[in-house]
Design brief:
This protein has 255 residues and is mostly helical. It has 11 helices and 2 strands, in the order αααββαααααααα. The longest helix is centred in the middle third of the chain and has 28 residues. It starts with a helix and ends in an 11-residue tail after the last helix.
């Protein structure tokens, strides 16, 4: 299945049509559904598309007819696409609501986090317990191969909170956890979207695994350096975004 934005939309319409239909769906009905949504597609194209869905196990032919019904795997795929669509809509709403104040708040938060989390990482390399290390390793590997999870914010924040707890320093840990409080989630969501747009998400997630290795081997200076570099990447991604949206030629923009 082609994973372009148009390809995903074609698939979403097809699977939703099959889910809502009270009888098997053929190429003509799929073509009509695409056209009703303002998308191109001939009957032959719709037929090939349905055969692709068959091959993927999302649909199956009903008896000797040319109509298809949705399989359980197809229903699961439809729900996955609906969830993705909802996430994209939420992201769009977030971008539309983004203001200069939001970006300034995010920069201030990241700079404070850098100060505290570098020291937390340094201390964690000396003080993390076996249970801490097990938890850190589990959360650090929250992706499957090169595929990013749909939500990178929650596992990333969980990882940073674990580092804070693993430092076993009452003051440093408390301040770090305050800065990583879930009430900052809207700002963290902004950070996720900015990082993704900059193509920096994969590298940032890789830093987590590298940091765990440094902590496991009690390399305190390395752990601090990795955390500093990681936080610098986040700060630089936001700064580049902010600079990109500076007003030009009298236009209004983020300042």
């Amino acid at each position: 299945m082609v994973q372009t934005s148009d390809g995903v939309l074609l698939e979403l319409i097809a699977l939703r049509l099959l889910s809502d239909a009270d009888k098997p769906v053929g190429a003509v009905r799929l073509m009509q559904a695409w056209r009703a949504a303002g998308l191109p597609g001939a009957e032959a194209t719709a037929g090939r598309f349905l055969r692709q869905l068959d091959e993927l196990g999302f649909t199956e032919l009903l008896g000797n007819t040319r109509g298809r019904t949705l399989t359980p795997a197809g229903a699961a795929r439809l729900q996955s696409l609906i969830d993705q669509q909802r996430q994209l809509e939420q992201q769009s709403q977030l971008w539309n609501a983004l203001t200069a104040t939001d970006l300034s708040d995010l920069m201030d938060l990241l700079r404070m986090r850098r100060l505290v989390e570098v020291e937390a990482a340094r201390l964690a390399a000396s003080r993390a317990s076996a249970a801490d290390l097990t938890a850190l390793a589990a959360v650090a590997h929250h992706r499957h191969g090169d595929e990013l999870p749909a939500d990178t914010t929650s596992p990333s924040m969980d990882f940073h909170r674990l580092v804070a707890r693993s430092c076993h320093n009452r003051i440093v840990g408390a301040v770090a956890l305050l800065l990583l409080d879930p009430t900052n989630d809207p700002l963290e969501k902004m950070l996720e979207h900015i990082s993704f747009e900059a193509g920096a998400t994969q590298g940032q997630l890789s830093d987590h695994a590298e940091l765990v290795r440094a902590i496991e081997h009690h390399r305190a200076d390395d752990a601090a350096a990795i955390m500093a570099r990681h936080m610098d990447k986040l700060i630089e991604a936001v700064e580049r975004y902010r600079q990109r949206d500076q007003p030009r030629n009298g236009e209004r923009g983020f300042v």
